[in-house]
Amino acid sequence: MAQFEKHVFICTQGPYCEFDGDPTAIFDRLKRLVGAHGLNEKIRINKAGCLNQCGHGPMLVVYPEATWYGNVQVDDVEEIVDRHLLNGEVIERLRYIAPPGNNKHVDHYPAEVRAFKDATEEMQKKRAALRQATLAQIQARAQAE
Ligand code: FES
Fold first, then answer.
1. Which residues line ligand 1 (CB under 6 A)?
2. Which region, left, alpha or beta, applies to residue 85 given φ > 0 means left and ψ of -120 to 50 means alpha?
3. What is the mean pLDDT of residues 55-59?
4. Model pTM above 0.85
5. Whose CB among 11, 98, 99, 102 lies 3.0–4.6 Å from 17's, allowing a Cys bridge?
């Protein structure tokens, strides 16, 4: 398989974008439409972690042109595919240009969202610890054999 011509990264795993819309549904619809156009070998749709633009989501970015779109909703996906991915046209009404400095604007989220963020980070720490323990077990078994 040749290298992809475009990558689309959607923040599906950051702690805030999923409270601005439905990034997983955006991902699913992008994948389906790109596949329907027979472009799976040219355009890669990827889930991504936080893109560090929290509070402006759901956020996605298209490379290699580095065009960012913010506040994307599921109903915008067909337009992104038709105008941008198929025809190279930037959709100005969705375009997100990061201001200089700290681009996270998360103070407006309710306390429940911040609690979700904290719980998510705790789960990620536990996962990393479990991974380390698993690797240590594998290495110990390999050394014993
Ligand atoms: S949570 Fe999506 S950009 Fe940070």
1. 11, 14-17, 50-54, 57, 59
2. alpha
3. 95
4. yes
5. 11
